[in-house]
Amino acid sequence: MREDAESLDIRDVTANWVNAAVLQAQIDDRIKSLADLAHTPLFFGRLDYLHAPGAELAEGADGEQFYIGRRHVHDAGGDPMVIDWRAPVSQPFYRASRRDPQDVALRRRFGYTGGELTAYEDEHLTDPAEAGAVSRLLQREIERPRVGPMRDIVATIQPEQDEIVRSGLSGSVCVQGGPGTGKTAVGLHRVAYLLYAHRDRLARTGTLVIGPNRSFLHYIEQVLPALGELEVKQATVEDLVARDGLAVRGTDPAPTAVVKGDARMARVLRSALDAHVTEPAEPLMVVRGSRRWRVPAYELAEMTAELRARDIRYGAARDALPQRIAHAVLVRMEQAGEAPDDRVQDAVARTPAVKAAVKEIWPPVDPARLVLRLLSDPEFLALHADGVLTGDEQRLLLWPKPYRSVKSAQWSAADLVLIDEAADLVERTPSLGHVVLDEAQDLSPMQYRAVGRRCTTGSATVLGDLAQGTTPWATRSWDEALTHLGKPQALLEELTAGFRVPREVIAYASRLLPSISPGLAPVSSVREAPGSLEVTRVAEPTGLTEAAVDACRAALAHEGSIGLIAADARIPALGEALLAADLPYLSPGEETTALSRLTLVPASLAKGLEYDYVVLDEPAAIVAGEPDERTGLRRLYVCLTRAVSGLRALHAQPLPEALGGA
Prior knowledge:
Elements: H1 2-6, H2 17-33, E1 45-49, E2 64-69, E3 73-74, E4 80-84, H3 92-95, E5 104-113, E6 116-124, H4 136-143, H5 159-165, E7 173-177, H6 183-197, H7 199-205, E8 207-211, H8 214-220, H9 223-226, E9 233-236, H10 237-241, H11 254-260, H12 264-274, E10 284-288, E11 291-295, H13 297-309, H14 314-335, H15 342-349, H16 352-361, H17 367-376, H18 378-385, H19 391-397, H20 413-426, E12 434-437, H21 445-453, E13 459-464, H22 478-485, E14 491-495, E15 497-498, H23 503-509, H24 513-516, E16 524-525, E17 533-537, H25 544-555, E18 562-566, H26 571-580, E19 598-602, E20 611-617, H27 619-624, H28 629-640, E21 643-651
Parallel strand pairs: 2-4, 7-13, 7-14, 8-9, 8-12, 12-13, 15-16, 17-21, 18-19, 18-20, 20-21
Antiparallel strand pairs: 1-2, 1-5, 3-4, 5-6, 10-11
Helix pairs in contact: 5-6, 6-7, 12-18, 12-20, 13-14, 14-15, 17-20, 20-21, 21-22, 25-26
C-alpha cells in the first residue's frame, strides 16, 4: 500500500502548480500514515462469524472470517486483508460475550513479541461446553513493560470503554475515571474513531487534544499517529490563551488565582467592556458633495440601544454601527429625491465624520488593556465588580504596584485566561469540530469557559477524576464543570474497572478517598499482583535519600520503566544523589528507552504519567508541599497510583493519618 502511494504520478492530473502542491502534500501524508510500526504486527485479533455480516441468518449459511488490526490493509487487488478496528464489523471483537455472542462463533487474540506472533488464544462464544476465563493474552498485554511513550490500547479495549469510544460526534461525553481505568486512552481512541466515522466533517472543522502540561502531551503524542491519525493538534490551556507579545512572567497567590478563575469574572469583564459604549450627545453631520445630511442624537442613540439589545460581540456591533448610520443617511437622500445604491452607503460609512462618531460612541477596545485597567485601577474595578465580588475579593485582584503598560505587566497564567475571555467578548473565538479535555478536574471555571469557546459549534470529550483535583480551584462536580464548559447536556460516564494499577496498590491509595472525595466509588482493579506494594519506614531522616537511591537501583533490576516520585522540594537533593550513585535519570516528558529507564518526577508533574515500578519518596512531604491538607492528600493519591507493576513507598516521617499513620 505504501509502495502504491509512493509510485503515484500526478503530472497528468494537475491543472497548475497549486493543485500539484496540494495533491503532493496529501500523498506525502498518506505515505507517512502508512509507515510501519516497529514491534507491532498488522493485526491483533480475528473474528469468525456464523453468518456473513448483513446476510440472512439462515441455517447452513456460510460464515465469514475477519482479521482485526490498527488500520485497514488491502492486498494488491484491493481486497481487504485486515479490517480497521473502528469499522462496524470489528465492534463484536470488543462487545461480544457468551451472553451476547453477536453472531460470532470464535474470537481469536494474538500475542506477539518484538513484532513476531508468538501465541494465540481462542474463545468459542457459542460453545456452551467451554467455560469462560480471563484472557491471559489480554492480561499480558496490559502488564507489558512501559518503555517509551504511551501506546494505543486497541487490542485491549473493554466493552464499557468501547461504548464511550464509539459514541456519536453530535453529543459531548464526560468520563469520570479513577487511576488506571484507561480514561485518557479512551479519549484518544474516541478521537481516532470520530475521525474514521466523520472524516470529511472533522477535516474541515478540526480536532484538538488538551492536556495539563507539556510532559503529559509528549507522553501521549504517539498514540494517534500509531493509529494513522496525523492531523490532530495537541495543546495545553496555556497554549490556547497565549497571545503574541504577552508572556507569563508572574504568579498569583492561591487566593488570588481562585478569584481570577471564578466564573463571576466573566460578568465583571462584560460590564467593564460595555461601559466603553457611550450615549451619543451630539447630532452627526455628513457632508456629501454640496449637500449636508443630519442624523440627530436621539436616532444615533436608538441605533446604539438596538445593537446593544442584540447581545452580539462588541466588535461585531462596532462594525455594524457605521452601516446603520450610513443607511439612515441614504434614507434621507432617497426622501430628497436621490437614488443612492449600496456603493454610496459604503462610501458614507467610510466618511471621516461617521468614523469619528463611531469612535466616540463605540470605541475600539484592546482586551489586554481592559484587563490591565481592571487589575490596576481600584475605582474602575469597584465600578464593575460591586455586587459581583466582595471587597476582599476585589483587593485580592489588584496588583500591589500597577504596571504602566501591557508589555511591562507581569502577567500570570490566570491573567491570560481573563484576556482570552475579554477577547472573545470583542470578537468570537473560532470553534473546532471536537475537543478532548484531559485531566479536566484541575481547571478553573474561567479555564472551562476558555476551552468551551473552542467547541461552541462542536462537541467535547471531557476526561478526569474528581479525586485527583490538585489545584485550589479544582472542580467540585462534573455538573458544575460542564455548565461552565457550555455542555450541560453532556452524557456522564463512569469507569470503575481498573486495568493498570494492581489491586493491592489501588486499595492502599483508596484509603484516602473518604478524605479527598467523599462518596466517590473506589476503583476495582482486575489485576492481582501479590508483593506489588511495599511501604518501608526509614529509621533516620538523613538516610531517606540513600534509601531512595537503593530502591531505584533495585527497581532497575526489573524490566520496564522506573519512576522516582518526590515532593518538588526534594528533587534537587535526589537528583544529586542519583548522579553521585552513577544512576543517570530523565525528566518528565523525556522518552524512556531500553538504556535509560529511570525518571525523576516532581509530584506536581506526576499526573497522567505511568511507570512499571514507582519509588515514592516521603508521602508526608508531598502532602506538606501543597497549600492545604486536602489538596496535599489529593496530590499524594495521584503519586500513589502511577505504578503498573510495583510501588515502594519510603518514609521517615509518620504517614498521613488518612493512610493509616505509623
